């Protein structure tokens, strides 16, 4: 019996995360009724299954629950890609619908605040399609008016599925392994199909009429391109992958916001948000308060109650050190902040171990992050030619002298703040290791990125052109955190914007053909 011809779609979007979900929704709801296939490597997070039990869905949807959906380093976790860096340390990257936007701090930082971009209005505010600008604290969060975490998957894709839109299809547990190309004469190679492994491990091919758009994240988007023969020729030849397009910048410039932390506990047992969540005697009351809110019919949560309605990250301090990265090399965001300081209710055990904190847990961490880096970025490369082989991931580290000195200045500043009488009289520093009292001591610290804010590995201007198209290819775009060479704030809102812009660019080009 002859094999059935592969299905064909106008657009194939890879990745149902923060950018991919809003991108697929905008393509599928365009007046032209283009057919759209959204491929996701992991399972759905809106429908209970063996991989995603109801407790996980509740943890993802409830802002105040302490999420431990997939512990870092947990072997065989179906909700994580299981990546490690070149030193063997585990990295946490979500492998499910919603992506990292379903498990992060939900902070919504407007990196474009002075750019007057037209794409923002539809994304923001309680009446926007994402509920993005709505927050219950000085930090704004992706929390819906019903006090639920508002991921782009939940707000954009789930309604499409509910409507059973005939021109839209979501396939989960689809591990994309390769893009197929054809080339005619001197024309750029054109993507004709996408291959993926389904949940049974069987290879499936889908044809594409117009574009492939990679929104698989800062690790998987360059990995898919490299496996497809798009990248640095020398690296591809070493691995044994035939070169389709020479693009030396695919997989380069991998960056993260490099951080150092301080740990404190309260002297007199002051209570934090986390204690209110972890206290077993109040767990039932917290749930009742939250469920009552969820049953309300009012569109606004002005009367929301209980600790489960917020993420417990009430504010972030943004700082800029004048002169650092202002013009010249690395001056991509000359007016943006370069230091991000977050206070988080928590407390490490006093022996310095990274054990889970149990109630009572009265204390907090101070995380100091360098959000722009002058030093060189890291890389994503192939470790082998195998279709399911994991990539070789090397994050940037704190090597540039200018970066070290700026991060040290912020470290000293926080030390000074914590030594003020109002705080020193109430807190005890329990940061592991001997105190750092000089730049020479600080410069010896090993500071590397852990992937929480990974970006830059398919950057605009180098790997991509100004319309997010992969240089050297006719019809492949990238739309996720990997396109940003630098980002001076927490990236989630900017990644949403990238998805929205990419959809508009793809629709413009489709109408022009």
UniProtKB/TrEMBL annotation:
Domain (Glucose-methanol-choline oxidoreductase N-terminal) ranges: 217-231
List of residues binding FAD: 176, 491-492
Keyword vocabulary terms for this entry: FAD, Flavoprotein, Oxidoreductase
Signal peptide annotation: none
GO molecular function: flavin adenine dinucleotide binding; oxidoreductase activity, acting on CH-OH group of donors
Domain of life: Eukaryota
InterPro entries: FAD/NAD-bd_sf, Glucose_Oxidase_domain_2, GMC_OxRdtase, GMC_OxRdtase_N, GMC_OxRtase_C
Required cofactor(s): FAD
Family designation: Belongs to the GMC oxidoreductase family.
The name this protein goes by in its record: Glucose-methanol-choline oxidoreductase N-terminal domain-containing protein
Source organism: Tribonema minus
């Amino acid at each position: 019996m002859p094999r059935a011809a592969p299905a064909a779609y106008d657009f194939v979007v890879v990745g149902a995360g923060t950018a991919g979900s809003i991108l697929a929704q905008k393509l599928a709801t365009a007046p032209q009724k283009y057919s759209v296939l959204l491929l996701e490597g992991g399972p759905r997070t809106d429908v209970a299954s063996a991989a995603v039990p109801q407790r996980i869905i509740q943890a993802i949807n409830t802002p105040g629950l302490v999420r431990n959906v997939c512990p870092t380093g947990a072997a065989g976790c179906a909700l994580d890609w299981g990546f490690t860096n070149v030193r063997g340390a585990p990295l946490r990257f979500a492998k499910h619908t919603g992506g990292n936007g379903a498990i992060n701090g939900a902070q919504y930082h407007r990196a474009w605040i002075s750019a007057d971009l037209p794409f923002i209005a539809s994304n923001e505010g309680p009446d926007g399609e994402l509920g993005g600008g709505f927050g219950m604290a000085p930090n704004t969060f992706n929390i819906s008016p019903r006090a639920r975490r508002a991921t782009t998957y939940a707000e954009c894709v789930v309604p499409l599925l509910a409507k059973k839109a005939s021109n839209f299809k979501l396939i989960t547990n689809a591990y994309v392994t390769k893009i197929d190309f054809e080339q005619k004469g001197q024309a750029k190679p054109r993507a004709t199909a996408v291959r993926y492994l389904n949940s049974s491990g069987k290879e499936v091919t889908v044809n594409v009429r117009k574009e492939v758009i990679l929104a698989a994240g800062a690790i998987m988007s360059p990995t898919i391109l490299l496996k497809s023969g798009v990248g640095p020729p020398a690296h591809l030849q070493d691995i044994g992958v035939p070169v389709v397009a020479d693009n030396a910048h695919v997989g380069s410039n991998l960056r993260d916001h490099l951080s150092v932390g301080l740990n404190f506990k309260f002297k007199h047992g002051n209570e934090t948000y986390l204690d209110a969540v972890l206290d077993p005697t109040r767990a039932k009351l917290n749930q009742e308060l939250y469920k009552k809110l969820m049953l309300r019919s009012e569109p606004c949560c002005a009367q929301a109650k209980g600790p489960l309605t917020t993420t417990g990250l009430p504010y972030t301090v943004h700082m800029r050190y004048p002169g650092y990265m202002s013009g010249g090399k690395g001056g991509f965001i000359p007016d943006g902040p370069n230091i991000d300081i977050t206070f988080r209710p928590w407390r490490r055990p006093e022996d310095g171990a990274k054990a889970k904190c149990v109630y009572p847990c009265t204390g907090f961490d101070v995380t100091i992050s360098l959000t722009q880096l002058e030093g060189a970025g890291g890389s994503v490369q192939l470790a082998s030619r195998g279709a399911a082989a994991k990539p070789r991931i090397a994050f940037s580290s704190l090597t540039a002298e200018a970066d070290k000195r700026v991060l040290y200045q912020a470290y000293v500043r926080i030390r000074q703040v914590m030594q003020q009488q109002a705080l020193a009289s109430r807190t005890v520093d329990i940061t592991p290791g001997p105190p750092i009292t000089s730049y020479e001591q600080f410069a010896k610290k090993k500071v590397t990125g852990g992937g929480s804010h990974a970006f830059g590995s398919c950057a605009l201007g180098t790997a991509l052109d100004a319309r997010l198209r992969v240089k050297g290819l006719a019809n492949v775009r990238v739309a996720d955190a990997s396109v940003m060479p630098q980002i001076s704030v927490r990236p989630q809102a900017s990644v949403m914007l990238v998805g929205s812009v990419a959809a508009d660019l793809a629709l413009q080009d489709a109408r022009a053909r």
